[in-house]
């Protein structure tokens, strides 16, 4: 199956009909462009895109099976990574030996990728090309332009993918934050200009398509987080997603205002903050103290930021709740703040973790119960999606990055915003954008690979 010079195809192998494990292909004139290459973390009992169910005992790290494109790797012109979240970048070290193509990424994203590749002894084998916002690159038959948007991690980018057959706008993960704490902002004029040029299809994030209104700005969290910390008499541990450098910025300010010392607990937090300092994203990184010193400070001077907001095994917060973290021990009267919301499927595990902390006399503040906002989503709610459709005005809407209900809600929203046609599908469907829009269902076999005992295994 090879596209000819008149074809412009979109083929998702992961991330459509599900949230996570993103792996997308665009085809034209005999070649393919890959966008993102991410992992997922199985949640037993959770139904996934192909109708199967995650089961206990599966490999802890899973990714889309790239067999279709690995069998055609001579046709793969390159891989573009839109940002450094695990569900977009995490599979590169595992799958690149099967692909062996150049990888394009922004500065912060490239720094995170280099750190991952070094762990697999691939750093000097993988050609990484750093790109800047607004830059255009010729990759095979495609011209790719990187466009600035905002998200919950530094250096996110949308893509305008051009070729002689047509143009596709690929949103990546995004939100419209008019006052981001870190990183570049965005300009509506950028996307309005795309409409003037003409966009055949908009392939767009659906995560919060079911959420009304507008997402909260990261900067709006300062007041709520400061109040939650200031009220605490003992130690404070804040748990959040490790990639959210803006949240770390905000918490560093809260630490200064409340007279506490801030330290990081968890490998991913430490790695992300190191990458942020190395790329100039986080100027306040030198205000951190060594996590080994936290246990020696008076309780009212401690503000620790910990991994484990989703109650993942072996993360810092899970170890704190179990009383076996090497750097810090919680006591009755301490406080844990969840500056994150549950990813669907993790609710039971998080509830059990909260119950364990509460049983030890630790007070727990969740984003749902807080009086003021202490967490902000990185994805667009309905008003933001509507604004983007009004700006870009694509001929065709292709909702991705969501489960069935999110994709359906996204398509309805696109229709109500004046987009005449939407294509809703899932992994393995071939979306034909040009010459005639349509879908060929389940044309390509898809599946999942897991990494277990040092090798890739098929997850049935």
TrEMBL record:
List, alphabetically, the InterPro entries matched: Metallo-B-lactamas, RibonucZ/Hydroxyglut_hydro, RMMBL, RNase_J_2, RNase_J_b_CASP
Name the enzyme's class. Answer: hydrolase
**Enzyme nomenclature, EC number:** 3.1.-.-
The UniProt keyword set, sorted, is: Exonuclease, Hydrolase, Metal-binding, Nuclease, RNA-binding, Zinc
Molecular function via GO: hydrolase activity
- Extract the Pfam families matched here: Lactamase_B, RMMBL, RNase_J_b_CASP
Alphabetical list of SMART domains matching this protein: Lactamase_B (SM00849)
**All copies of domain Metallo-beta-lactamase, residue ranges:** 20-214
Its name, as the record gives it, is Ribonuclease J
Record organism: Marinobacter xestospongiae
């Amino acid at each position: 199956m090879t596209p000819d010079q008149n074809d412009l195809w979109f083929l998702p192998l992961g991330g459509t009909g599900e949230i996570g494990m993103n792996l997308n292909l665009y085809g034209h004139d005999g070649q393919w462009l890959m966008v993102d290459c991410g992992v997922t973390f199985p949640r037993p009992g959770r139904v996934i895109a192909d109708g199967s169910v995650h089961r206990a005992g599966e490999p802890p790290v899973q990714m889309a099976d790239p067999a279709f494109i690995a069998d055609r790797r001579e046709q793969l012109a390159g891989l573009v990574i839109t940002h450094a979240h695990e569900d977009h970048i995490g599979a590169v070290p595992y799958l690149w030996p099967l692909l062996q193509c150049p990888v394009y990424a922004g500065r912060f994203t490239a720094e995170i990728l280099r750190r991952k590749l070094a762990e697999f002894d691939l750093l000097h084998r993988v050609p990484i090309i750093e790109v800047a916002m607004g830059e255009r690159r010729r990759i095979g038959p495609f011209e790719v332009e990187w466009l600035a948007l905002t998200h919950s991690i530094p250096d996110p980018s949308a893509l305008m993918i051009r070729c002689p057959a047509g143009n596709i706008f690929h949103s990546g993960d995004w939100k419209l934050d008019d006052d981001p704490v870190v990183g570049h902002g965005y300009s509506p004029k950028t996307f309005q200009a795309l409409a003037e040029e003409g966009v055949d299809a908009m392939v767009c994030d659906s995560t919060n398509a079911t959420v009304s209104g507008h997402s909260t700005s990261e900067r709006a969290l300062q007041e709520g987080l400061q109040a939650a910390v200031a009220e605490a008499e003992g130690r404070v541990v804040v748990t959040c997603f490790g990639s959210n450098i803006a949240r770390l910025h905000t918490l560093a300010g809260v630490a200064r205002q409340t007279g506490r010392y801030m330290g990081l607990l968890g490998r991913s937090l430490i790695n992300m903050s190191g990458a942020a300092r190395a790329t100039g994203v986080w100027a306040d990184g030198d205000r951190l103290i060594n996590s080994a010193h936290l246990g020696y400070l008076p309780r009212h001077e401690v503000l620790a930021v910990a991994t484990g907001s989703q109650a993942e095994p072996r993360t810092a917060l899970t170890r704190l709740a179990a009383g076996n973290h090497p750097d810090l021990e919680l006591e009755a009267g301490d406080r844990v703040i969840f500056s994150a919301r549950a990813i669907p499927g993790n609710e039971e595990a998080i509830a059990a973790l909260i119950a364990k902390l509460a049983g030890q006399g630790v007070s727990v503040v969740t984003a749902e119960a807080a009086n003021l906002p202490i967490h902000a989503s990185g994805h667009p709610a309905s008003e933001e999606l509507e604004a983007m459709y009004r700006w870009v005005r694509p001929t065709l809407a292709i909702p991705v990055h969501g489960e069935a209900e999110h994709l359906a809600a996204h398509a309805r929203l696109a229709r109500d915003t004046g987009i005449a046609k939407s294509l809703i599908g899932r992994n393995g469907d071939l979306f034909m954008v040009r010459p005639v829009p349509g879908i060929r269902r389940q044309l390509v076999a898809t599946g999942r690979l897991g990494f277990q005992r040092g090798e890739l295994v098929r997850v049935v």
